[in-house]
Amino acid sequence: MEIQAEGLCKRFGRTLAVDGLTFAVRSGAVTGFIGPNGSGKSTTVRLMLGLDRPDTGRTTFDGMPYAAFRAPLRSVGVLLDAKAVHPRRSARDHLRTVAVTNGLSARRVDEVLGLVGLADVAGRRAGAFSLGMGQRLGLASALLGDPPVLILDEPANGLDPEGIVWIRQFMRYLADEGRTVFVSSHVLSELGQIVDDVVVIGKGRLLASGTREEVLGGAAESTVTVVSPDATRLAQLVAERGGRVDRSDGSQIELGGIEAPAVGELAAAEGIVLHELTPHEPSLEQAYLRLTGDEQEYRAGGTPS
Amino acid sequence: MTAAMRGEWLKLRTVRSPKVLVAIAVLLTWLIAGLSTRDYDGSGRPVELVAGAGTLTLVLLLVLGVQMFAQEYRFGTIRTTFTAVPVRRRVVSAKVMVGAAVGGVTGALAVGGAALVTTIVLSSRGYDLPSNDRLAEVAIAYVIVGALAVVFGIGVGALTRNPAFGITLVLVLGLVVEPLVSVFTSADVARGFPLMSGFGAFPYSFAEGTAFTPWYVSALVFAAWSSLLVVGGGLMVERRDA
């Protein structure tokens, strides 16, 4: 099942939170929805599900709006806010109140509780849960209907390192099963290793979308770190051949605009000894920072002295 | 629709506060009926002892109704609810039907126990018992007003989206504003006020003098207010962001 968002716009008072967003999400892939804090990710997710009313635009799931599904949880699983539970209702009862509205059984509730590792605390009040346990409960809710589409808003928020690894592997597993996984996050280390496609937004506008390679290729390039006792001369030679010295720190230099094999061959030809030659592939972080450089809604003032 | 109603029913059953509210409403009605009967001196109609205890039932069921909607906004579960049932009028309808059923049953339990307590105490003290006809009339009123009170509260909860504000609003309106304003207006106008019409819908109660005659006219006015609030609240729920 594919998701198509077309021309989504949402204004809150004077703030244009989402500004004409159009993107597609394909099945069988993990699509990362990334952007700085306050860039409109959560608002976009709410617009997609009809929880917030878009000023213009629409979202369809294989051509159907979300509200048209008779039992939507069987088609689209959603994780929004982990703390959105009645604090005095048990985790199991919380899921039962959701499941029953879509004709899902109590047995399925117990299955998903086991799947997310909450079986032992299913009878405990959800209000006593940590943020990480709440996220697992939210994920259980999303999985209730065994849906072909999963929309997860900041799913690793509050999870411990083990939980983050688990959710990464879980998202990958779900996508490999052919499901559509759309996951928003501003913590790129959560997504960097598993996303197939990327949608990048800033101040509610679309900055880039496409496969991971397309977005990385368009917004970041590979670099090479070299450690050599003759780093200064090597840097000069690289510059003469059209390369770039991004950073120089004594015997260590960081080079751009030139591939690692070319640096090695150049050093060999000139008789320059190398102690280290490390190529760095472009990362999602680099692409993200480059794309969102001017689109940060909230930016730190600097390092405290 | 049935599935949405089952969800609402389960929500009520799986937290303590609705059950406590219903229990308090029922037990306090019985207690008030018992205490009034203990102090009964033979003046007035015995059926008043059963009917007069209904005011408190109404107030507590209003609170239950407000909580049924407003608490979903307070705890953020309204998004989960609308994700599971995206047609919002279906959610509002399900809440109204389940709430009305719970209110009606609570009214029936309250009046049943109150009638029993009153009958036992009156017969032990040698007084005449309320007639069955009048008791039946009071019982019907309890059931109808109980159902409408929850629906009224649901409407307020949908409009305010804040349980503390919603509950304060109905209490201040019913116990302070309406009685105060009624002092300065004609009785004909005052008996049509939203909560005065609810209080006036118990036949043979202390509110009889300030209510429409017969009692079911007050019940109809209360039903109109409750419907108006639910429709208004439902429209707001439909239009607003969740």
Give a written overview of the molecule:
The complex is a heterodimer of chains A (305) and B (242). In chain A, α2 crosses α3, α3 packs across α4 and α7 crosses α10. Chain A is an alpha/beta fold and 305 residues long. Chain A starts with a strand and ends in a 14-residue tail after the last helix. With 242 residues, chain B is mainly alpha-helical. In chain B, α4 packs antiparallel against α6, α4 crosses α8 and α7 runs parallel beside α11. Chain B is globular. The chains are: A alpha/beta (305), B mainly alpha (242). The interface between A and B is medium-sized, with 33 and 27 residues.
What distinguishing features does this structure have?
heterodimer; A: 305 residues; six-stranded mixed sheet; elongated; B: 242 residues; mainly alpha; 11 helices
Would you summarize the structure shown here?
The complex is a heterodimer of chains A (305) and B (242). Chain A is α/β, with parallel strands linked by helices and 305 residues long.
